[in-house]
Amino acid sequence: MDPKANNHTNKKVALVLTGGGARAAYQVGVLKAIAEQYPRNHASPFQIICGTSAGAINATALAVYASCFRLGVKKLEYIWRNFHCKQVFKTDGLTIAKQLSSLLCKSLHADYGRQHGFSLLNNEPLQQLLNNYLNYKRIDQNIASKHLHALAVTASNYQDGNSLSFFQAEEAQQNWQRARRLGHKTQIHTTHLLASAAIPLIFPAAKVGQDYYGDGSIHQLCPLSPAIHLGADKIVTIHLEQQRRSSSMLTPLAPNSAAIAGHLLDSIFSDTLNSDLERLERINRTIELLSEQQQQQLNLRPITSLSIKPSIDFDQLAHNYYQHLPLSVKLMLATLGIKQAKPSSITSFLMFEQTYTTCLLNHGYKDASAQIDKILTFIQD
């Protein structure tokens, strides 16, 4: 197969990008390896793009540049290779000190006296970054010109506990509702991205309409659901999960609060996707036993998937680059019991520094390049 040939299949290919804070740089490396296999002016090979948390930001950037896939990836690569924490959250010592002290004061206030939610960090710089780099009007233009079928960004509703996928799609696409998960058609904007990427306790909840939303991974029991509801026939997922260490390689120590918080974040961002992929495989095997008429009666169709998983240890890499964090951030982490001598997965989520993100991007590129023929065959067949 010619890797640069256009994809003439009528099947809709979806890209699902999970959350993981700074780890999302790895996704851009994978996308770079794929983009290099297409001509410079080629549209995105992914007609449906779904993202959660940091993956939602990468997904939206791809949707904005859906008419020119390589350009969109190049823009993302530039940002991630030149990242600094101060572009995501305020890192000056005074702001962080005020943030920590205000948290203590808020615990003494009555609920009606709280104007802002609980968070360790102020992410106003991220809002400015997104407003400066993303031209959201181009999403509708790309949908109208058939370069994109749909974009979905998932967030968690703190009021009712539902997983809500905000999506922008062709006119015929309708809202959906299932147990604890909904799809709502709207115009995607910065507010939706801030909501989806609001890691619990670390970044503040974002208000969309009348409700407050947090990181989309919290209540996302079925991460593949948005892509399937939007009509995907094939799904490519790029994981950001931490490699599991063998218990025989670890010294048995009682975990501190930072270690426990890190494990919780790892579970939130990865476990549900792996479970959903297993469920998809079981359904596909069941569908194989049904006739076409039975499949139509039950409204079932086979959906194939391809997973790209990291070969790296995010925690160890973050540990290696710990000294590159701003001093104020290291002091803030120290108050939570996180130091270079006492690492936590939390560091790998907050290490928005170019040395670390560039390393992740390069690893993503290497992992995808090693299986590029398999990836292209899946996308184009």
What Rg is obtained from the alpha carbons, in whole angstroms?
Answer: 21 Å
Mean pLDDT: 88
Count of alpha and pi helical runs: 15
> How are helices and strands ordered from N to C?
EHEHHHHHEEEEHEEHEHHEHHHHH
Structural class: alpha/beta
- Using the alpha-carbon principal axes, give the shape: globular
How much strand?
A: 5-15%
Q: Which percent bin holds the helix content? A: 40-55%
**What oligomeric state do these chains adopt?**
single chain
Number of strands: 10
Main β-sheet description: 10 strands, mixed
Residue stretches low in confidence (pLDDT < 50, at least 5 long) are 1-8
Distance between the termini: 9 Å
Question: What is the fold's blueprint, element by element?
Answer:
Elements: E1 13-17, H1 25-35, E2 48-52, H2 54-64, H3 69-81, H4 93-106, H5 124-133, H6 137-144, E3 150-157, E4 163-169, E5 176-178, E6 181-185, H7 190-196, E7 206-208, E8 211-215, H8 225-229, E9 234-238, H9 257-288, H10 292-297, E10 304-308, H11 314-320, H12 327-335, H13 345-350, H14 354-369, H15 372-380
Parallel strand pairs: 1-2, 1-9, 2-3, 4-6, 9-10
Antiparallel strand pairs: 3-4, 3-8, 5-6, 7-8
Helix pairs in contact: 1-3, 1-14, 2-3, 4-12
